[in-house]
Amino acid sequence: MIHLEPGKETDATACSRYRWTHTYIAVSAGEVYEITPKEGSKWNDLFNRVSAAGYESASLAPFRRFRRVPDAPWFELIGAVGKSKSTTFRIGAGTTATMKTAGELLLYANDLPFMYWNNSGNIDVVVRRVR
Prior knowledge:
By secondary structure, the chain is mainly β. It has one domain (9-129): Galactose-binding lectin (Jelly Rolls), CATH 2.60.120.430. The protein contains no helices and ten strands. The chain has strands at residues 9-15, 21-27, 32-37, 43-45, 48-50, 77-81, 89-90, 95-98, 103-109, 119-129. Strands 1, 3, 4, 5, 8 and 10 form a six-stranded antiparallel β-sheet that branches. It has a four-stranded antiparallel β-sheet with strand order 2-9-6-7, with no helix packed on it. A hairpin with a 7-residue loop joins strand 6 and strand 7 (89-90). It is globular. The mean pLDDT is 97.
């Protein structure tokens, strides 16, 4: 595990096939991080090749409420501290987030909990500690 000092950054990768992708980045409550997907990074929800911002689909509308983060698009990049829903935050095309608790920063694609088997690809990100 690494713990970034303010102003320092590192790369991480979110794998679309994992319910939780470990970044091996330790964060503490109150720290602020900027998380930015690298330009051109794409992943696939079956045949839909999309960026970290995700996508919407009329044919999948009946299933929206069952997504891990119901109000976020399919395949939006999501972050969390540890495997806790209470620490989940949306990243999408990029965000600045204040950590709610201490633990490891984890990443995942917003999908149905049981549908990660048909995913492929990765989103590469830069994680920079702001303060």
